[in-house]
Structure formats: C-alpha cells, structure tokens
Amino acid sequence: MRLNKTKLYQKDNAILWYFPRAFASYQIDDFNSLPWQQNPIRVFGKEYLEPRLTCYFGPQYTYSSVSWPAREFAEELVQIQNELFEQVGFLSNAVLCNYYRNGADSMGWHADNEPEIDQRIIASVSFGATRKMEFRHIQTKERFGVELHHGDVLIMENFQNSWQHAIFKKKVSNPRVNLTFRRIITH
Ligand SMILES: O=C(O)CCC(=O)C(=O)O
C-alpha cells in the first residue's frame, strides 16, 4: 500500500496529517463482529447512554466515567495496526472503536489528553458515512472542520494539549465506524 500524504494544518508543533482513502479497500461490515456496546456516562450527576456504540482493545484505560479492562486486539484490527506502523511509523498499542449508527449519533468536545495517552500521535481511521470532525483550540477558540470519508486516515500530532475535537449530529442515515489508534503508556 502506498499512501498519499497531505499536511492539513500546522500551528507550532501541532500538526494534522491526512491520508485520503488509505484504507478504502475495507468495508464497514468488516467491523460488524466487534463487541460493540453502549456505555452509560454521567454528566452533571445524571446518567445517560453515550450517543454511539464503542469498544476498546489495549491496556486498561479510563476516560470520563468509562473504564475499559485490558483486552487483546481483535483480529480484524491487527492488520490496520500493522499497516499504520509500516506506512506511518506509528506503533499503537490501543484502539478505541466508535460506531455511529446514523447521523443522530455523535461525540461531544473532548481532547483525549488523559495522562496515560502518548500525546505525540493519535491515528484516526474512518469507514462508511462521511462525517465532519470539528476542531476547537482550547485557548483561542479558533475552529475548523475536516470531512472524513470512507478509508481516510487523520493523524493528530501533538494536538491533544491545545485542541479539542468533536463529531456533531448530521442528516445522514448510513453508519460510520471510526478507529482511533493510540499509544497508552504503561509502567
Ligand atoms: O469518530 C471520530 O472521528 C472521532 C473519535 C474520537 O474523537 C475519539 O475516539 O476520541
């Protein structure tokens, strides 16, 4: 596989790299048998169900009110993990998988800046429906969005300390899978 690489954005050492359609040969159905679940989350003391399905593979990992036990990578994710290493040089040891059933599913502003995540690189791979990833600078509130299509890879380099990102609701009926490969620092 030869990847076509574009630098989409840079401010100081925060860079967004974009590899259009890098994994376009995959089908969204390739991820049907992952152990998708809908987690309860607490917001201002009230419990809700997350507006999407998720599953996680890697070392034990906790964010907001969700705690994932350690779990070995599913077979269908190992090939993508290996290709990201070969093509981009990113050796991840964890992947958070998101399943947006339709445009009513979403993800609110967050930064993936928990101390155990190696902030240098997060690689996001998308399949299925095109959805826009919105970015917002934590201090300056500068904003922009990136449309993510089937098979696209977006690499966030040193982005997590100063930027938040989100996927807003959209009028679309088909589903989307997003895999965010990370490196969790274990001691
Ligand atoms: O679905 C996406 O593209 C975003 C996923 C995300 O922000 C995350 O898993 O932290």
Q: CA-to-CA gap between the ends?
A: 34 Å
Radius of gyration: 16 Å
Shape: globular
Along the chain, the helix and strand elements come as EEEEEEEHEEEEEEEE
| CATH arch. level architecture | Sandwich
- Note the total helix count: 1
Helix fraction by DSSP (H/I, runs of at least 4)? under 10%
- Give the number of DSSP strands: 15
CATH topology type: Jelly Rolls
Question: How many strands, what sense, and barrel or not for the largest sheet?
Answer: 7 strands, antiparallel
- What bound compounds does this protein have? 2-oxoglutaric acid
β content, as a range? 35-45%
The CATH fourth-level homologous superfamily: Alpha-ketoglutarate-dependent dioxygenase AlkB-like
CATH class: Mainly Beta
> What's the mean pLDDT score?
94
Poorly predicted residue ranges: none
Structural class: mainly beta
Number of domains: 1
In what order do the strands lie side by side in the largest sheet? 1-2-13-10-15-8-5
